[in-house]
Amino acid sequence: MAALDAPASPALSAPRAPRRPAARGLKLVLAIAVLALAGVASLAIGARPINPETLVQALTAYNPANGDHAVVVSRIPRTLVGLLAGAALGLAGAAMQGVARNPLADPGILGVNSGAALAVVIGIFVFGVTNFTGYIWFAFLGAGAAAVLVYAVASLGRDGATPIKLALAGAALSAGMVSLLNAVLVSSQQTFDTFRFWQVGSVAGRGWDVIVPVLPFLAFGFALTLLTGKVLNSLSLGDDIARGLGQNVTAARALTALGVVVLCGAATAAAGPIAFIGLVIPHVVRAFTGPDYRWILPFSMVLAPVLLLAADILGRVILPPGEVQVGILTAVIGAPVFIWLVRRRKMAEL
């Protein structure tokens, strides 16, 4: 009885529990503030820099006759595409890593973006698709087919779809799909002319005609994937434990995969195949959120656009008067991180 009446130890006391969600909530607010600053910088920085006062005037009292105001307004769709595509790729990457328990999972590395790009090229070449709405549906089809094919190939042989086998299967199939894509492009000058500015991965030249059609798909993908945090926490414990907790593992994976395919297809249709955003950001996020996917997912969604917009801003100023496409810069940033993750044996599984 004395043991039952003894005071609880400090390690088991309750007061510290509520502080962690509060601290994470504060960090999320700070992350949103950083994202807002990145958005403002995207509007102000470029070949023609805009001072803060002019930026505020352009947003609050737009004057069509003012050249600086026109520059700011022209950068708004580009910034929004960067925000939306970055959020989609970051959220999809985090969900892919969770559902596959694979730290190397990324829409670009596992061939999902390449599948979407190949499907868009086929849509242009075979079916004569020239509008953005058509790009979306073909991108969805290609992204879903690539995801299923990579997982099926990696599942062959002993041990099933291990992280390394998934990465190798994704890289191999991605190379094959890129080869097919290039074969189509070199055989049709018209298809090449339609596709070439989209292929590298860029937010430049995108307008409201791109943003408006993709919004419903992104909204669905965001909502669906953000709701899978609890599911991914269960899957991270292993399939047997997840089933013991009452989780339908097959349905959980299918639901998460649907959200990932929608996000990747929409982002790829809007901005082209941009790699490594979904690989780098979730690992950065885990450093200060821990393994809880209920926090990893929203943080990845907020911070991924920061990286994409930063890369886009750097691409505008690094080689004036030209620009370096954002897809090139994200690859330069992400490739060393990918190599580092592959070499770390402790990162074999999540």
From TrEMBL:
Keyword Cell membrane: yes
Hydrolase recorded as keyword: no
Any one GO MF annotation of this record: transmembrane transporter activity
Cellular localization per UniProt: Cell membrane
GO cellular component, as recorded: plasma membrane
Keywords: Cell membrane, Membrane, Transmembrane, Transmembrane helix, Transport
Family recorded in the similarity comment: Belongs to the binding-protein-dependent transport system permease family. FecCD subfamily.
PANTHER family membership: FE(3+) DICITRATE TRANSPORT SYSTEM PERMEASE PROTEIN FECC-RELATED, FERRIC ENTEROBACTIN TRANSPORT SYSTEM PERMEASE PROTEIN
Protein name: Iron complex transport system permease protein
